[in-house]
Amino acid sequence: MDRLTARDPGFAAAVRSRIRGEVREAEPLARYSTYRIGGPATVVLPTTAEDVATAVRMAHEAGVPWFALGLGSNILLPDDGLDALVVRLGKGLDRLERDGDRWIVGAGLPAPLAARRTAAAGFAGLHIFVGVPGSVGGGIYMNAGCHGGDWAEVVESVTVVDQAGQDAVVPRSEVPFTYRRSGLDGRVVLEATVRLRREEQHRLDEQITEMFEWRQSGTPFNQPCCGSVFKNPAGPSRKREDGPRTAGQLIEAAGLKGFRHGAAEVSPMHANYFVNTGGATAADVRGLIDRVRQKVKREFGALLEPEVKIIGAGGEYLTVSP
Ligand SMILES: Cc1cc2nc3c(=O)[nH]c(=O)nc-3n(C[C@H](O)[C@H](O)[C@H](O)COP(=O)(O)OP(=O)(O)OC[C@H]3O[C@@H](n4cnc5c(N)ncnc54)[C@H](O)[C@@H]3O)c2cc1C
């Protein structure tokens, strides 16, 4: 017997009848990804934590895979869409509240908004995310970082819900944060408590302006893309001890700026950004990832690991061939 998928109208209707938010069927995922890539799927737009719990529990009990989505700024979704249920956190799960130096930030809040609002109240810590166009939940799951900081530095606890629909508050000490990873797999981040530090307003304003200008000048914001495609390799490349170190430097040194596969292109502006030049497919981006990895490996002996999450039809994470 065929396995039930989230595309099944009966399943979608059942979820719709049990939650307050919306369930959209055959929704083009390209709308939910900064790459503007991805075919149709059943998308839940929860408005409460209970909605999230109900949707993932119903999926789990029906044997339907599910998948949490934020602002889609670090993800490559499949051209044929997903059989998995997409639980897309946004409005309704976007609270921002202050209690002394502690702030509660909802997973659905865009990180740049969290950055600006906390900074406007005179607090530093989240201000570094002013140019990182993801959600709070995606940022925590990815342990997104920039300007020398990351989410791990400010998080005190994370409220999550598991596939059985049970919520839990996980203290920072139990979140195994590492570089661009939280270890919170199999759970949906609902919100977090972060501890910020007071900072003089004029210094915060200056830093935000500087960071934003730095971003604008080095990021292809005018083209669909997903941020860094590869993580920076942990160790130095083998061939040139004093040579390129970061993923972007390695790709650029391999002469790949502007290199294309289909309609996907290594950005001429920043080599670790791949852009959709118009009508690119997930297959184009994956092909470009493979070709860039091969060339960098050949030239420098460095094996680039994707930072972007490449998603399969069942919502599973795909790996790249060595
Ligand atoms: C122009 C540009 C610049 C960028 N610059 C940076 C940068 O400087 N530093 C950096 O680290 N990243 C950067 N990124 C990448 C991206 O913005 C971050 O990784 C961001 O935190 C991802 O959040 P998201 O909401 O878009 O996640 P998504 O892309 O929606 O999802 C990414 C992963 O997080 C999971 N996820 C999303 N929401 C939740 C949730 N609530 N609970 C559990 N799991 C969840 C998804 O399942 C997926 O595995 C950049 C991206 C762009 C487009």
Explain what the structure shows.
The chain has 322 residues and is α+β, with helices and mostly antiparallel strands. It folds into three domains: 9-88, Uridine Diphospho-n-acetylenolpyruvylglucosamine Reductase, domain 2; 96-199, Uridine Diphospho-n-acetylenolpyruvylglucosamine Reductase, domain 3 (2-Layer Sandwich); 220-310, UDP-N-acetylenolpyruvoylglucosamine reductase, C-terminal domain (Uridine Diphospho-n-acetylenolpyruvylglucosamine Reductase, domain 1). The chain is 26% helix and 22% strand. The chain contains seven helices and 18 strands. The protein has helices spanning 9-18, 49-62, 111-120, 136-142, 201-218, 247-253, 282-300; strands spanning 22-28, 40-45, 66-69, 75-76, 85-88, 96-99, 102-106, 123-124, 145-146, 149-150, 155-162, 167-171, 187-195, 197-198, 260-261, 264-266, 274-276, 309-310. The chain has a five-stranded antiparallel sheet. A four-stranded mixed sheet has the order 1-2-5-3, with helices on one face. A three-stranded antiparallel sheet has the order 15-16-17. The longest helix has 19 residues, at 282-300. The chain is globular and about 55 Å long. The two termini are 35 Å apart. Bound molecules: flavin-adenine dinucleotide (FAD). Flavin-adenine dinucleotide binds next to β3, α4, β9 and β13.
